[in-house]
Amino acid sequence: MEDKVSDSLGRDGGQDVIFRDARREDVPEIVALLADDVLGAGREGDLDDAYWAAFELVEADPRNRLTVAEVNGTAAGTLQLTLIPGLSRHGMLRAQIEGVRVAADYRGHGLGRRMILWAISEARRAGCGMVQLTSDKERTGAIRFYESLGFTATHEGLKLVL
Amino acid sequence: MEDKVSDSLGRDGGQDVIFRDARREDVPEIVALLADDVLGAGREGDLDDAYWAAFELVEADPRNRLTVAEVNGTAAGTLQLTLIPGLSRHGMLRAQIEGVRVAADYRGHGLGRRMILWAISEARRAGCGMVQLTSDKERTGAIRFYESLGFTATHEGLKLVL
Fold first, then answer.
1. For chain B, which residues score pLDDT lower than 70?
2. Rounded to a whole number, what is the distance in Å from the CA of A105 to chain B's nearest CA?
3. Is the ipTM of this complex over 0.85?
4. Closest CA to A70 of A9, A132, A148, A141
5. Measured between beta carbons, which residues in chain B are less than 8 angstroms from residue A32?
6. What is the rounded distance in angstroms from the CA atom of residue A55 to the CA atom of residue A23?
């Protein structure tokens, strides 16, 4: 889980992005990223035991990777990559992306694109045959962004809040 | 993983449905169920090592449950339930349903509904705050079915085949 990739933004600006597994001390920054979002704002809360317990579950699970995209020592972005084994599609392993956020100061400079390309590359390296995610239909910009990266919106994403 | 629930169809017909974790000897029947489907037919293949390896990954993973809905000793239906921990939504555990199939002989008698209600109940019991799934937009009947169970199609389901 300590697989680190240093990846340069290249001609876009030259700032290095380090993709690494989240550490316990990143949790406050990650929660702030999750909350700093039109839809996310109302869903997040005080940094209480629920977040720490969830972090521990993710950290201990070899099929879940909570990732930080670090720029200049700051958590500039985050996403979670989940590997889901299953019999469907000839026993295909699938990768799922959840909780994608880019810090306000880093939006519009290609960091989100680098993050998703990194996740696709990790999924391929893990032997996955598919990468999937759902995006709220209100996030029209995000949906166009994923389509520009090759995703197709073939499915309805159905949710039931308990 | 040996949590078994016996559940009667009640006034619909009175046949008992046993929900249980899939066993190694169920794999051929489950693969046949996955293949016996308009969209699934072209995606499945010979019962080779890929299926057995995938079964072993699922069986060994405490957050993945491949489930058989058994009626009269037959695998009448199958689904996979995956628990995904994460920081989003105040550290909410989510349950995801994949690979839902009902055998042709058992369609139209409420078995699919019992299966999804069972999965929702298991998700609640595991402490999940949400159940989610994606359904191909071509499956208009399936989407209406999930909506009738309380799911809302708030999200686009985006897929990228590698």
1. 1-14
2. 21
3. yes
4. A9
5. none
6. 9
